[in-house]
């Protein structure tokens, strides 16, 4: 089992940057594929980006080229670097962990067993 704690959210102007962190407990962090999701008020949760155990990544079209996911297995932490932020990026951001095969990039939320409590990102225009 793994526990996830997100941090780094806040208020930023459009065009600005934020880096979110997701710290995982436990010694088996490298066994998990990791992902970031977001949910805006009145909208469904949506996939943002994910990273496999091998370090391969995939991002949704809405953030591709602006957001970058990375992981540090030694620090049991996954990061989300968000650049060129837009007001439509405003949402609660959640990290998630999935027991997965080495190269598999988990995109579907139902495949994630563990979730953090979320961190709010607000982008002003």
SSE arrangement:
Blueprint: E1 4-7, E2 10-13, E3 18-24, E4 32-39, E5 46-51, E6 57-59, E7 67-72, E8 77-82, E9 91-99, E10 114-115, E11 119-124
Parallel strand pairs: 2-11
Antiparallel strand pairs: 1-3, 3-8, 4-5, 4-9, 5-6, 7-8, 9-10, 9-11
What is the molecular shape? globular
In the predicted model, the low-confidence regions spanning at least 5 consecutive residues are none
As a percent range, the share of helical residues equals under 10%
How large, in whole angstroms, is the Cα Rg?
13 Å
The major β-sheet equals: 7 strands, mixed
The proportion of strand residues reads over 45%
Structural class: mainly beta
pLDDT averaged residue by residue: 96
Count of DSSP strands: 11
* Count of alpha/pi helices: 0
**Helices and strands, in N-to-C order?**
EEEEEEEEEEE
What's the end-to-end separation, in Å? 40 Å
Oligomeric form of this entry? single chain
What attributes characterize this protein structure?
single chain, 125 residues, mainly beta, seven-stranded mixed sheet, four-stranded antiparallel sheet, 11 strands, globular
3D architecture notes:
With 125 residues, this protein is mainly β. The protein has no helices and 11 strands. The protein has strands spanning 4-7, 10-13, 18-24, 32-39, 46-51, 57-59, 67-72, 77-82, 91-99, 114-115, 119-124. Strands 2, 4, 5, 6, 9, 10 and 11 form a 7-stranded mixed β-sheet that branches. It has a 4-stranded antiparallel β-sheet with strand order 1-3-8-7, with no helix packed on it. A hairpin with a 6-residue loop joins strand 4 and strand 5 (46-51). It starts with a strand and ends with a strand.
């Amino acid at each position: 089992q793994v526990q996830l704690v997100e941090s780094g959210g806040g208020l930023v102007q459009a065009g600005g940057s934020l880096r979110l962190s997701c710290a995982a407990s436990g010694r088996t962090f490298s066994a998990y594929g990791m992902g970031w999701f977001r949910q805006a008020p009145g909208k469904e949760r949506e996939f943002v980006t994910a990273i496999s155990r091998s370090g391969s990544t995939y991002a949704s079209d809405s953030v591709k080229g602006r957001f970058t996911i990375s992981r540090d297995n030694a620090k049991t932490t996954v990061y989300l670097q968000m650049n060129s932020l837009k007001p439509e990026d405003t949402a609660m951001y959640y990290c998630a962990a999935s027991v997965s095969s080495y190269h598999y990039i988990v995109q579907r939320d139902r495949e994630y067993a563990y979730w953090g409590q979320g961190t709010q990102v607000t982008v002003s225009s």
